[in-house]
Design brief:
- The structure is a single chain.
- This protein has 244 residues and is mainly alpha-helical.
- The chain folds into two domains: 102 residues, no CATH class; 127 residues, no CATH class.
- It has ten helices and four strands, in the order ββαααβαααβαααα.
- The strands form two sheets. Strands 1-2 form a two-stranded antiparallel ribbon.
- Helix 1 runs antiparallel to helix 2, helix 8 packs across helix 9 and helix 8 crosses helix 10.
- The longest helix has 33 residues.
């Protein structure tokens, strides 16, 4: 996106709980700290240990019953390897950034700009989990966004999941927006009901002014009115972007 058409700045310099959404747009994300992440990881590792125990003894019993011999041992070891490496990545892929531990604590893994992370990002961050067992906590302690090595490499963050049940999807958007811009604005609209009302209105108003100034044709088609007359900027932004 050209520099003169960047979406507007929306806040003061970012704190530890603020990330740059895209260009100059800043989003307040409820970053999860070491305590909540450690609790979630402890729950996941307990569940993983239980699954491994069940698989181990179940595999031994089944292998003996079917007289699989060496094949049985190979399948048993392969299953344990798959559980160890696949547990976190598969849960995060299919539960949209959550594992049972994160779900219990109320956390979610998202992309660094606040939108959904990709399956590749989940795989990369969990591939490095073995290294993070040894160096993850020190790295998280000095990183203002509490990222471990896997998060930094994969471009992900772990946040408190306070978005609520609504799923936001833009029905339309300015032609100059790409997938990253769409993801960030969708993330903002999901979080707006739980943000401070004044801050949500400020960011909504700046996004509306950007659309009106940079995309006048889109503005007329989507709204056809003057946004300065609107009392609820977030509601008008939802209308402009076709969010029901």
């Amino acid at each position: 996106m050209p520099r003169d058409s960047q979406l507007p700045d929306a806040a003061a310099p970012p704190s530890g709980g603020t990330v740059f959404g895209l260009d100059n747009v800043r989003l307040d994300l409820p970053i999860a700290g070491i305590g909540s992440r450690t609790l979630a990881a402890s729950i996941d590792h307990l569940l993983l240990f239980f699954l491994q125990v069940v698989w181990f003894f179940g595999g031994l019993a089944l292998g003996g019953l079917l007289e699989l011999g060496g094949w049985g041992i190979g399948i048993l070891v392969l299953g344990l390897f798959f559980l160890q490496w696949g547990y976190f990545a598969l849960f995060e892929i299919f539960l949209d950034g959550q594992t049972p531990g994160k779900l219990a604590v109320g956390l979610r893994t998202v992309a660094a700009h606040g939108g959904r992370a990709t399956a590749a990002a989940f795989i990369v961050r969990n591939f490095l989990r073995t290294f993070d067992v040894f160096i993850g906590l020190p790295i998280m302690a000095v990183d203002r966004r509490s990222r471990r090595l896997g998060d930094s490499v994969a471009g992900t963050l772990v946040v408190h999941d306070r978005e609520g049940p609504e799923e936001v999807e833009l029905g339309r958007h300015p032609p100059s927006w790409g997938s990253r811009e769409v993801a960030v604005v969708e993330s903002f609209l999901r979080r707006a009901p739980w943000m401070e009302p004044q801050r949500a209105e400020q960011l909504g108003a700046r996004l509306l002014r950007w659309i009106r100034r940079q995309e006048p044709e889109f503005w007329e088609q989507a709204v056809g009115g003057d946004e300065t007359a609107a009392g609820d900027r977030v509601a008008l932004l939802r209308k402009a972007l076709g969010v029901g």
